[in-house]
Design goal:
The complex is a heterodimer of chains A (about 475) and B (about 350). With about 475 residues, chain A is of the alpha+beta class. Chain A is about 55% helix and about 15% strand. Chain B is of the alpha/beta class and about 350 residues long. In chain B, α2 packs parallel to α10. The chains are: A alpha+beta (about 475), B alpha/beta (about 350).
Chain lengths: ~475, ~350
């Protein structure tokens, strides 16, 4: 169970206050019990002393203690006047009860406690009556002890008072605690958890509605929480403003990018047309009678022209994709034929570098698929030409496999390889491993970007697994419908 | 020459004296002690009279400088009208000669023979211990007279006696023929109504000791207890005054009945019990009235004439033993207890 902030604070307060109540009540009760016992002892001693003085006043009238009449009334009055006193009695030195606050006790004989001949006041515990007893001697005018006044009070009274104190202390403490908690609950709700809940709602809204920073925390007081909420609102204002700026900047950037792409597409198209004408004328030229020198020149022109046309085609494709004008043309095709043709198209270049090229199609691979085989061919030739470009010796192997509903095409080489951290950059447009690569191996850096965008257009993905110096495997996947054989 | 010198010296002396008197007169009026003349109906030393004067001085206050002069009419011995009148004249002569600022009179005879003569004069009078009413003395409404009435605590006294001996129901009252007992007897008759179950079986005024003895010896047949008023004017067979102390001793030694009275002095002389009228309270109240007149400049007639209310339970333990009474501890503790007869102390 998750406790809210308010409940946590309330629990902490309850713990602290309860501990305080228990400590204070227990301490107070113990102190009170001790003081109450002292007070009762003092009181009983004072009563005993008072009765003793009365007796001594009577003895001073030249009346013997055994001649006194009706002193039990004084004992009764003492018990009646002072709450908590059990009894008062006058006891002869022989233990005979001469007067008692209970008439039926007069004349009884007591077992006197040790030290009963002591002429000094003292306190004893009467286990029979379960009382504390104050004993004060009564002296006749000649200074002889003629009796003792005993005043007792029950021991349970101290326990009862202590328990009453405990109950009262806890009761009052709990009442205070309940009232305090109610007040704390109200004040926390009003001044702490309420504002925090409002803050939490806004945070949740921002979290659940990405990019929507329109909601604000309602204004709070001038305290720390109010300051925090105000700061948060200001932060949201800034984020919202920055977001608007970013959107505007992105829109401007996109517009510029589109203009650039359109420009490139237009330019590529405009250049490709005369370039085709140049290549066509140069092809026608090469079919005429030419000297060796002229044929070499024409061959160079043809080679350079084709290279330039490839670049123009890349730029045009990339521009179309960027401009969102790329469209796929799916149709049934044979995967084996596709791979064979792709390898065949690049075999001449591989042979020039004495690279061994091979391909592999698993037996369970469907023979016929439905997709844009032209674009698949473009993607494969891009990867194969890159492999040839970056491999000086060894082999290049083309493979295809099936993973779920996607076909994975991979080109593995034994070339220079690439560091794993650079792999993601390779699929960004106009990016190569480093500037020296661009200088050494040439290329526009658009090939892999085009592969990536085409793979994404086919609901697939691209990637590379490589270790520098140990070759690389570049792959792409595409969702291709399997057709019956 | 010598005559001239003597004449000159005499002239200077007269002038100096006059100057001195002229200069001292206002100072003497304001700085000389106040003069208070106290006329006792009875005599001193005696608890009753001395206690009243002591209370008076206390009530007047120690901050007031007072010169006291005391006159005793001693009506126990001067018990005839002529004797009392003579003592009254002597007291009045002193008043006229000494010119006190206030006269304090105690008990009834002083009112009859002194105070009454100054009613409605400028000289302020304060009395205490008056058993009769102010009207009886012709003092009612007098502009210059204030005082404290003495009204005995009869009901409380009888209840105290009944606490000692619950069997006491029938009461006999006895006293001498002094006129101030008449209002006391009247009040006793009236207040019997507050003692349901008790009856007043005899009220006897006696003049001789023999008559007194006879009454006391006859009471056991008709009464359970005796109420002693005062026996100050009792005479023997020869017409000579018998000391009241002797009469009370005889009573203690011969009477088989318990008796009560209203004054502490009687307890010392063997009367069993009394809720006494405190002579000191009487004097204290009178002293406060005097202070109101002399210090606060109150008009005497504006001060109410009221009895004192505080009574003191008193017991004679010697008499209780003689009567074979065991008195409850609570009574002994709440009472002024006289343990021995006065004559045994001497």
């Amino acid at each position: 169970m998750t406790l809210g902030l308010r409940n946590k604070i309330a629990l902490i307060v309850v713990g602290v206050v309860l501990t305080g109540i228990v400590a204070i009540t227990a301490t107070s009760s113990l102190l009170f019990s001790a003081q109450y016992a002292d007070a009762l002892l003092s009181r009983s001693h004072a009563i005993a002393k008072g009765l003793s003085i009365q007796l001594e006043r009577l003895l001073a009238l030249d009346i013997r203690i055994d001649e006194l009449v009706g002193f039990e009334e004084q004992c009764i009055e003492a018990v009646r006047a002072y709450e908590g006193i059990s009894y008062a009695q006058v006891v002869s030195p022989q233990g005979q009860v001469l007067f008692h606050s209970q008439n039926n006790r007069i004349g009884t004989k007591l077992n006197l406690p040790s030290g009963s001949g002591d002429d000094r006041p003292r306190t004893i515990t009467d286990n029979v009556e379960n009382t504390y007893v104050s004993i004060v001697p009564v002296m006749d005018p000649a200074g002889n002890r003629v009796a003792d006044v005993w005043v007792g009070f029950p021991r349970e009274q101290i326990v009862a008072q202590r328990n009453a104190m405990l109950i009262a202390g806890f009761g009052v403490g709990l009442c205070v605690l309940i009232l305090g908690l109610a007040f704390l609950y109200f004040t926390l709700s009003r001044y702490v958890t309420g504002p925090i809940a409002a803050f939490s709602r806004v945070v949740s809204h921002v979290r659940d509605n990405q990019g929507d920073y329109s909601l604000r925390v309602p204004p709070q007081g001038d305290d720390e929480l109010g300051g925090m909420m105000q700061g948060f609102n200001q932060l949201l204002d800034q984020i919202e403003q920055r977001n608007r700026d970013l959107v505007q900047a992105k829109e401007a950037s996109d517009a510029a990018n589109r203009a650039k792409s359109e420009f490139l597409a237009t330019m590529s198209h405009e250049i490709r047309t005369p370039m085709n004408a140049v290549l066509g004328m140069n092809d026608l030229l090469m079919r005429t009678e030419l000297s060796d020198k002229q044929r070499r020149y024409a061959t160079n022109v043809q080679s350079a022209g084709r290279w330039l046309l490839g670049i123009l085609n890349d730029i045009l494709d990339f521009s179309k994709i960027e401009a969102g004008k790329l469209s796929l043309s799916p149709a049934p095709f044979c995967v084996r034929t596709l791979i064979e043709e792709a390898v065949q198209m690049q075999s001449e270049m591989a042979e020039k570098k004495a690279l061994d090229m091979s391909w592999e199609i698993p037996e369970d691979m469907p023979a016929r698929l439905h997709g844009d085989s032209g674009r698949l061919m473009q993607m494969l030739t891009n990867l194969i030409s890159n492999a040839i470009k970056f491999t000086e010796q060894g082999q290049i192997r083309v493979s295809v496999s099936r993973t779920g509903d996607r076909m994975v095409f991979a080109v593995t080489d034994t070339g220079i390889g690439v560091a794993p951290e650079i792999v993601p950059k390779l699929f960004e447009p106009f990016t190569q491993a480093d500037s020296s690569t661009s200088r050494r191996y040439g290329g526009t850096g658009l090939g892999l970007a085009i592969v990536k965008q085409l793979a994404e257009a086919m609901e697939g993905d691209v990637g590379a697994d490589s270790t520098p110096g140990q070759g690389a495997t570049f792959w792409f996947s595409a969702r291709l419908e399997v057709l019956p054989a | 020459m010598n005559r001239m010198i003597r004449w000159a010296l005499s002239f200077l002396a007269i002038v100096a004296t006059d100057q001195a008197l002229a200069a001292d007169a206002p100072a003497a009026t304001s700085s000389r002690p106040l003069r208070v003349f106290h006329v006792m109906s009875f005599d001193s030393p005696w608890r009753w009279t001395d206690g009243q004067l002591e209370g008076f001085k206390k009530g007047l206050g120690s901050d007031v400088k007072v010169e006291y002069r005391v006159f005793q009419m001693d009506v126990k011995r001067n018990s005839t009208h002529e004797a009392k009148e003579k003592k009254g004249q002597e007291a009045r002569a002193i008043i006229d000669e000494w010119k006190p600022d206030l006269v304090y009179t105690s008990d009834d005879d002083a009112q009859t023979y002194v105070t009454k003569h100054y009613a409605n004069t400028k000289l302020p009078f304060v009395f205490s211990g008056m058993n009769k009413t102010p009207a009886d003395h012709g003092l009612q409404g007098a502009s210059n007279i204030a005082g404290v009435l003495e009204q005995e605590h009869f009901v409380e006294t009888v209840k105290l006696l009944q606490a000692i001996n619950p069997k006491v129901k029938r009461l006999a009252v006895i006293g001498d023929d002094a006129p101030h007992w008449a209002p006391v007897i009247e009040r006793i008759r009236t207040r019997m109504a507050q003692l349901p179950g008790s009856t007043l079986v005899a009220v006897d005024i006696v003049k001789t000791f023999d008559e007194y003895k006879a009454k006391l010896q006859s009471y056991p047949q008709v009464a359970d207890a005796v109420v002693q008023l005062g026996v100050f004017t009792i005479k023997d067979n020869n017409g000579a005054a018998v000391k009241y102390q002797d009469i009370l001793r005889w009573t203690a030694e011969n009477s088989k009945l318990p008796d009560v009275s209203f004054w502490i002095d009687r307890i010392h002389y063997g009367v069993l019990a009394a809720v006494t009228v405190s002579e000191r309270e009487q004097g204290l109240a009178a002293g406060k009235l005097a202070r109101s007149i002399l210090v606060d400049k109150a008009t005497p007639s504006s001060l109410p004439m009221k009895p004192t209310l505080k009574g003191t339970p008193s017991l004679s333990l010697a008499r209780a033993k003689a009567l074979n009474y065991s008195i409850k501890s609570s009574l002994l503790l709440s009472s002024e207890v006289v343990t021995a007869y006065e004559w045994e102390k001497q």
